[in-house]
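User: Okay, second chain of the day. Same drill as before: sequence in, structure tokens out.
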Amino acid sequence: MKETPSGTPVGVDDPYDHAGLCDHLTDEGKCRYAFEHPEQDPEFARERRDDDLRCPAADPDGEASCASIASDETASGDWNWDDCPHYRCRKHDRECVRCGLEERRMAHSDERPLLEEHHLSYAGEGETLSHEITVYLCRWCHAKVHKSWARIDDDVNPDPEAIAEKEDRRSREQSEASFESAADRFDFGDE
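Assistant: Same drill. Structure tokens below.
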């Protein structure tokens, strides 16, 4: 299993098995990175411009499949996702990929979120991190993954403590949405 630089497990053997489409891929199959950041890698940007900014890991119709990430060939036959020096996949689903707990944020509160970003890829010994691959895990699953041999693809239910925290937030949210007059809400005293 892959590990962090400090030696704790990340819950996967191969991060690319859990990655999705590149964050830089547009709906038309173009590479947004080469367009927006040509100064970061001029040679890469020049190659992409020569190919009309087409993403080499996407198929010619501008679509890419998650199955092509781990396979030996992509739909277009050019690259796999891991061949791209600027591939990045940060999941934006606001639920835990392990237990399915959904995020419930409280407005105007500095309470700790229920979900945390979990990195699946780290730089190894002497390597530099070239691909950022992240998913969301609830705080409870995040701790289990890093402190044991729990995997992110385990079929588990949310921790009872996590459900209680989510329901507490939900009930406070509902009580805030109910109508209460200012006279009842605040004690103005007799003036």
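DSSP finds six helices and three strands in the chain.

User: Thanks, on to the next one.
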